[in-house]
Design goal:
This protein folds into 2 domains: 81 residues, no CATH class; 69 residues, no CATH class. By secondary structure, the protein is mainly α. The longest helix is centred in the middle third of the chain and has 24 residues. The C terminus is likely disordered. α5 runs antiparallel to α8.
């Protein structure tokens, strides 16, 4: 999702320079939504100012905010590219007991609730431990995290926390069945 918007600031600027104000407005509105999803406040703020200026037909003000939009987009792009990409999940040959993960899963859950991009980094650090369990929710969580689908990821983390709680109470190894 985020990679689809890496050249948005440039596209917005080109649309404005060519007099395609409606197109520039559509692009900046989309970028503002992605910025909100990524909790990229500076990018979201610059996009909001430009969007409001375009709605008021104040192209001059919109153009004045383009450098800030470019800078904010460059910063978030750099941050996103520094996050580790995850490899596809494969079924492990041997299932091993899952270590205590309550604290890390709770941290991940909080970041997802805040729609914070740092959730990808926390998940990346948990991923290898979680993969040893071969629980079906993990593939779905992996997909949700990689697509920055915070809502779906929250649901999968909640299911993992419930499983971890059951495991703690029964002192069992993963995976647990829901029977």
């Amino acid at each position: 999702m985020a990679s689809d918007y890496t050249d948005s600031a440039q596209a917005i600027e080109q649309a404005m320079l060519q007099g395609h104000i409606a197109e520039a407005h559509r692009l900046v509105h989309s970028l503002k939504g992605v910025a909100a999803t990524l909790v990229a406040r500076q990018l979201q703020h610059a996009a909001q100012i430009i969007e409001s200026a375009l709605e008021a037909n104040d192209v001059t003000q919109a153009m004045q905010w383009l450098p800030k939009l470019h800078q904010a987009q460059a910063e978030i792009s750099h941050s996103l590219h520094s996050l580790p990409l995850s490899a596809p999940i494969t079924e492990p040959a041997n299932r091993t007991p899952l270590p205590r993960l309550d604290d890390s899963l709770h941290e991940l859950q909080i970041l997802l609730q805040e729609r914070n991009i740092k959730a990808r980094k926390v998940y990346a650090s948990l991923r290898s431990s979680l993969l040893t369990s071969a629980v079906p929710e993990l593939m779905q969580l992996d997909d949700a995290i990689n697509h920055l689908d915070f809502h779906q990821a929250q649901q999968h983390v909640a299911a993992l926390l419930e499983r971890e709680s059951k495991r703690e109470h029964t002192n069992a190894a993963w995976p647990l069945t829901d029977s």
